[in-house]
Amino acid sequence: MSTKIAVFGATGGVCLAAVKLLLAEKKYKVSVLVRSKEKFENLYFGDAIADDKREFDKNLEIFVGDVYDEDDTNLKNVIRGSKMILSGLGALPKISFSLFPSRWFQFSQPHICEETGKIILKAVESLPVEERPSRIIGISTSGLDHDVPFLLDSFYKAFLHVPHQDKAELEELLTNQTLIPEVILVRGTLYTTGPTTRKYHATEGKKLGYTISRNDVGHFIFTQCIEGDEWVGKKPLVTY
Ligand SMILES: NC(=O)c1ccc[n+]([C@@H]2O[C@H](COP(=O)([O-])OP(=O)(O)OC[C@H]3O[C@@H](n4cnc5c(N)ncnc54)[C@H](OP(=O)(O)O)[C@@H]3O)[C@@H](O)[C@H]2O)c1
């Protein structure tokens, strides 16, 4: 039987890349919760939609819903029976050009990672023990432990304090919970839309890289966090 992986944030670049790699492998069943099926299909199938060459993969299960929905039936369906949860939920900042640099990045959902982390854990708790996942891979960020070069650290402190506090709270939540025994917190540097190079560093120490493509973070998650066990209980920094 295929191993089921539950994915939240599958329309984001990192999780989408991981989903594509998982489904290409043919031994996984992937279950995603997305707010727009159309958006996910456009991203997943790309040009194949226009050419009408899309092939629905029998190993892909798409549930439509918002993690915050009061009716959490679909959220539970995504998780039920999965071996692992991958969550890359997040909210992009609104960027505005103000005379005051502190107003350049505005965050309308400052606690989204912590809040959705709690919602996911509550759903896991409601499932019978045999239907619960044994691993959760949470997408966090670099910059929480002075693990990046000085310039990037300064940029983070000046502009990204709010989402970084949220990621720190997500890390604390997942690290201290006892429902899911294996936790991996993936800390990427600044994301780019570049290709999959496979030439990145993954480490628990400080690294001099500034960026990493979403595709390479997805590749790291698939090859080393889902297929491999070496990062369980760790917070790998992924960067070029
Ligand atoms: N940008 C960076 O440099 C950087 C660096 C390190 C870490 N990160 C973090 O890495 C993670 C992944 O980033 P990414 O760029 O791949 O993705 P992203 O563009 O931040 O996408 C976020 C995902 O979360 C989904 N989402 C948000 N709220 C939701 C809700 N209430 N219910 C269901 N889905 C919801 C979005 O769905 P919709 O498509 O429906 O909006 C989207 O799929 C994020 O947590 C991000 O903060 C980013």
UniProtKB/TrEMBL annotation:
Per UniProt, residues of the NAD(P)-binding domain are: 9-223
Protein name stated in the entry: NAD(P)-binding domain-containing protein
InterPro entries tied to this protein: NAD(P)-bd_dom, NAD(P)-bd_dom_sf
The source's domain of life comes to Eukaryota
PANTHER family, per database record: FLAVIN REDUCTASE-RELATED, UPF0659 PROTEIN YMR090W
Q: Which SUPFAM superfamilies match?
A: NAD(P)-binding Rossmann-fold domains
